[in-house]
Design goal:
Helix 11 (351-359) packs parallel to helix 12 and helix 16 (456-482) crosses helix 18. It is elongated, with a radius of gyration of 26 Å. The protein starts with 8 loop residues before the first helix and ends with a helix. By secondary structure, it is α/β, with parallel strands linked by helices. It has a ten-stranded mixed sheet with strand order 8-17-16-15-14-13-12-9-10-11, with helices on both faces. The chain has a seven-stranded parallel sheet with strand order 3-2-1-4-5-6-7, with helices on both faces. Helices cover 39% and strands 16% of the residues. It has 18 helices and 17 strands. It has helices at residues 9-23, 27-44, 62-76, 94-101, 119-125, 146-155, 201-204, 262-273, 309-313, 331-340, 351-359, 375-382, 386-391, 393-404, 438-451, 456-482, 485-490, 492-499, and strands at residues 54-58, 81-86, 108-111, 128-132, 159-163, 185-189, 207-211, 223-226, 250-254, 278-284, 299-303, 318-321, 346-348, 369-371, 407-410, 415-418, 422-426. Helix 10 links the parallel strand 12 (318-321) and strand 13. The chain has two domains: 9-226, YjeF N-terminal domain (Rossmann fold, 3-Layer(aba) Sandwich), CATH 3.40.50.10260; 237-499, UDP-N-acetylmuramoyl-L-alanine:D-glutamate ligase (3-Layer(aba) Sandwich). The structure holds ligand NPW and potassium ion. This is Bifunctional NAD(P)H-hydrate repair enzyme.
């Protein structure tokens, strides 16, 4: 497993400082090392060859300093190199000025005025552009002249290599700040920053490469790791010959209402395809007439009132509450209250979260509860705007996990899985998963793993990865536009090959 911690910009700065102290070096010496290691990586991977014409675009901060030192090494190799600096010499940091001194034989063009567009020709002539405009120091929206230069970079045919993070992407939340550089490769200095993974990051970063530059690590920060697909390997035990269906989890999905009856079926089917021994859907008797169950493998039962529920759930190993449930029936509140009063592991998804928000305060969840909101559901759950969640998704996910002792799966381009103490980032999904029903599939997969006895955090991590991998397979077959939630389910058998011991 990738054991490189994911940091905030502030934490990264602390590690930079710690490195200077522990290794007894100056900030410029560290920059020198970073520049050399970045260059070595670029050359070793043939991102630049002697045929290329390289333009390094630098800001006035240390991200630009890194860029200039890379320029120095490239130029020393005899590869045509030029530097564009956006801003004036007075604005440059001390380290950046020192780096510039190493570039005496390289043509340097300053872009200070918006009217000056002489840089455009340079960018047009480049075959490789190195982006050192902003790193973790970006704090506000990008304006001219930076904006115009970035737009010109994005129109160029050159290969773009961003240093640390695509310029214009915020290092803490991955949001594009007005505009951002579209990179083919991003060379991340030592640690993932949250912004390398969240929100807009994946649309701008190209391929991420983490470059080890010997910056010291700290055990004092919150545990935050990237979750690679390889984590899935062998996570589920063998299915023994001498076993029966109850060994693999008896799962109940409570959901469905008029117009949304497909949701619990998708969820229940995903659970069966993930190995559950039994999978049942439980719908309100009044809504039963709307249900069309094409799968005889999925059992369906109905309830009239709360009095039916205790007997029904008695033998369940896990329950998924919410897919397609709607927000209209007050009975759902009573059912959920009862579920929370039991020891049965729960996944609460979709409309289930609507009922949960009024109930959760009154219950000790004993950590047996997983909630799976997308950003909008998270915002509604907290009574805040979706913009707030987008700005600080990790913070809100951890806060809920901490306050209510639950595992939070905050679904997005980078799904955040946290129990507050440990947080995992999964960016393995595909844009094709942004389609109706895929959330129901995820809740079924996670429910299946819970029902099989996995601890909630493990069930959430493995479930998210299984769902992402199935999404990738579905995309290979149906394409990102056409793939549907049921296609994702149909790829689960292939995913199981990876997960089985
Ligand atoms: N030892 C070291 O130092 C190491 C450094 N390293 C490298 O340095 C990078 C961080 O460098 P950095 O802190 O100098 O900030 P950077 O990202 O270059 O930004 C420059 C300045 O831009 C400004 N600014 C912000 N927003 C703006 C906007 N919208 N429009 C216009 N201006 C804006 C803001 O200054 P302000 O104007 O706010 O005073 C900011 O200070 C890091 O990502 C890594 O690549 C690593 O290699 C490890 C060792
Ligand atoms: K950059």
């Amino acid at each position: 497993m990738n054991s490189i911690q994911i940091l905030t910009a502030n934490e990264m700065r602390q590690l930079d400082q710690l490195t200077l102290q522990q290794q007894n070096i100056t900030s410029y010496e560290l920059m020198t090392r970073v520049g050399k290691y970045l260059f070595d990586f670029i050359i070793t991977n043939n991102f630049i060859t002697s045929e290329d014409h390289v333009v390094v675009v630098a800001g006035t901060g240390n991200n630009g300093g890194d860029g200039m030192l890379v320029a120095h090494h490239i130029h020393t190799r005899g590869i045509p190199t030029e530097i564009i600096i956006i801003g004036s010499q007075e604005q440059q940091t001390e380290e950046s000025l020192k780096a510039l001194k190493h570039c005496q034989h390289i043509p340097v063009h300053y872009v200070v005025e918006t009217q000056d567009d002489s840089y455009k020709q340079l960018l047009d002539d480049a075959t490789v552009i190195i982006d050192g405009i902003f790193g973790i120091g970006l704090t506000r929206d990008v304006e001219d002249p930076h904006k115009s230069v970035m737009n010109a970079m994005n129109q160029s045919y050159a290969t773009v290599i961003s240093i640390d993070i695509p310029s214009g992407i915020h290092a803490d939340n991955g949001l594009q700040m007005g505009t951002a550089v579209h990179a083919n490769h991003t060379l991340i200095v030592q640690n993932f920053k949250q912004g390398n993974l969240l929100n807009d990051a994946k649309d701008f970063s190209g391929l991420n490469h983490v470059i080890d530059v010997d910056i010291v690590q700290s055990l004092e920060f919150d545990i935050q790791y990237e979750l690679p697909l390889s984590y899935l390997q062998g996570k589920l035990g063998k299915r023994h010959h001498n076993s029966y269906k109850y060994n693999y989890g008896n799962l109940l999905t409570i959901g469905g209402s008029k117009g949304m009856m497909g949701a619990p079926i998708l969820s229940a089917l995903a659970a069966l395809r993930s190995g559950s021994g039994l999978s049942q859907v439980y719908v309100h008797d009044g809504d039963h007439k709307y249900l069309q169950n094409p799968y005889p493998d999925i059992m369906v039962d109905t309830y009239l009132g709360i009095e039916d529920v205790p007997q029904k759930i008695r033998r369940m190993d896990a329950i998924v509450f919410g897919p397609g449930l709607g927000k209209k029936n007050p009975l759902n509140m009573d059912i959920l209250a009862h579920l929370l009063s039991t020891e049965i592991p729960l996944v609460i998804d979709a409309d289930g979260l609507y009922y949960l928000k009024d109930l959760l305060k009154g219950y000790n969840t004993r950590g047996h509860l997983i909630i799976t909101p997308h950003y909008k559901e998270m915002a509604d759950f907290l009574g805040i705007s979706i913009e707030d969640v987008i700005q600080q998704p990790v913070l809100y996910a951890k806060n809920i996990a901490h306050t209510y002792n639950v595992v939070v799966v905050l679904k997005g381009t980078c799904t955040i899985i946290t129990n507050d103490i440990e947080t995992y980032f999964s960016s393995n999904g595909t844009p094709g998963l942004a389609k109706a029903g895929t959330g129901d599939v995820l809740s079924g997969v996670i429910g299946s793993l819970l029902g099989r006895g996995l601890p909630p955090l493990d069930a959430a991590k493995i479930g998210v990865l299984m769902h992402s991998l199935a999404g990738q397979y579905a995309e290979e077959v149906y394409g990102e536009e056409s793939m549907m939630a049921s296609d994702v389910i149909s790829m689960l058998p292939k995913v199981m090959d990876h997960v089985k011991a």
